[in-house]
Write a structure and sequence with these properties.
single chain, mainly alpha, Serine Threonine Protein Phosphatase 5, Tetratricopeptide repeat, two-stranded antiparallel ribbon, 19 helices, elongated
């Protein structure tokens, strides 16, 4: 009979990596296939260790090393790499402890960049192993010395973002989260959760600015779990919720914020605007009137006047709108939009002539950002306020870092 091609599924015994002869036969003994030389890749090999087909031929011919031996050599070189990266990281921290922050940043950046350029796939794991070992040792000696490391990696993250080295920026974020969580967990001082929260809030603000919605929101929520009174983290979270169109959660966050800090005008303004969005106009008006009656910044007052005037105009309370806007241009004569709104209110109330006079008196537009633009750009990546407490805390703990690096412990 003509030769036939048969397809079958076979279960082979577990074999070690190496050369074998494969013999197949039909169960009734009516036919056998010629013996085949095969190369078995054992289960001990990782997928990345598997050779290409051309290498399999060379393996069969004995021209290449077995992958298991090659993997052992790789593991040995990885240990050497981790040791070298550990030494470089400790060197960076020694410079940091001596007050040479710039040198510490330069050395750490150069080390990480070189590791990535040498082997982009392996670098994150090698760096994490090296730095993680040092961090764990320092945390065991004195958790307070982790604060300077937090500041160091935050500033390194800024450098990577500016240089558009985004994989290294992501690696820096992982180190920051690990340091913050470890510090909050291990330190006993009352300030530990506060400083850890500031670090995570700093990252959360950046992530939202970079349009990474869920990671940014999660980071801010974690910051608030560590320090429920972190005003700026709560404000950033509320702004993010508002921007996402989640107005009711934004209102809840802003209500809590005005309870924590009644004098924070931006929180009260945003609360009023979002209350109106969910239909609570009466409460919105009360918040706007309270803000106007207080001593808020001019940009907040300008928006508060506009919003309250629009409430009045929407309900045809024309005289109330005109009176309010007359007050606003005397209090804020530099705000051109208030003049335009007053002219509109006058025109609607039948006083178009005076409306034209108001338009003629309106100030010329300037290049300065308008109050509304400032409101809309709240999360523009300026994290200066979130850094102040961390920077002060970092400087105060440099002696603790120097002691821990030398093998000492706090007395």
């Amino acid at each position: 009979p003509a030769p036939q091609r048969l397809r079958g599924r076979f279960t082979l015994p577990q074999l070690d990596t190496g050369n074998y002869l494969l013999e197949t036969a039909l169960a009734d003994g009516s036919a056998t296939a010629p013996r085949l030389q095969v190369y078995v890749l054992g289960a001990e090999l990782a997928r990345d260790d598997a050779p290409a087909w051309t290498d399999v031929r060379r393996l069969l011919a004995g021209e290449l090393e077995r992958p298991g031996r090659r993997r052992l050599k790789r593991l040995q070189s990885q240990k050497e790499a981790v040791a070298a990266l550990t030494a470089a990281y400790r060197d960076s921290l020694q410079r940091l402890a001596s007050g040479a922050t710039g040198e510490a940043l330069e050395l750490l950046e150069a080390t990480e960049v070189a590791a990535v350029e040498d082997d982009a796939a392996a670098a994150p794991g090698l760096l994490a192993a090296a730095q993680g070992g040092v961090i764990a040792d320092l945390a065991e000696r004195d958790p307070e010395c982790l604060v300077p490391l937090l500041m160091l990696h935050l500033e390194l993250h800024d450098r990577y973002v500016e240089a558009r080295r985004f994989p290294l920026a992501a690696f820096a974020r992982d180190r920051i989260v690990d340091l913050a969580e470890r510090y909050a967990r291990n330190a006993t001082s009352e300030r530990a959760p506060v400083l850890a929260s500031e670090a995570l809030a700093d990252l959360g603000a950046y992530l939202l600015h970079a349009q990474l919605r869920n990671p940014g929101r999660n980071m801010l929520e974690r910051a608030l779990q560590l320090d429920e009174r972190n005003v700026f983290a709560r404000l950033d979270l509320a702004v993010a919720l508002e921007r996402f169109g989640e107005y009711r959660p934004a209102v809840a966050a802003l209500r809590r914020l005005t309870e924590l800090d009644p004098e924070l005008g931006e929180a009260r303004l945003r609360l009023a605007i979002n209350l109106a969005r969910i239909g609570e106009r009466a409460e919105s008006e009360r918040q706007l009137r309270r803000l106007i009656a207080g001593g808020a910044d001019d940009w907040l007052l300008a928006i508060a006047y506009q919003e309250l005037a629009r409430h009045y105009l929407a309900e045809a309370r024309l005289e109330a709108a005109v009176s309010l806007l007359d007050e606003s241009i005397h209090r804020l004569p530099q705000e051109g939009r208030l003049y335009l709104l007053l002219a509109y209110a006058l025109d609607r109330s039948g006083r178009a002539g005076r409306g034209r006079e108001i338009l003629d008196a309106a100030p010329l537009a300037t290049r300065e950002a308008s109050p509304r633009n400032r409101y809309n750009r709240r999360l523009a990546g300026d994290r200066t306020l979130a850094r102040r407490a961390l920077r002060r805390g970092s400087l105060a703990r440099l002696p603790a870092l120097a002691l821990a690096l030398g093998g000492g412990r706090p007395g």
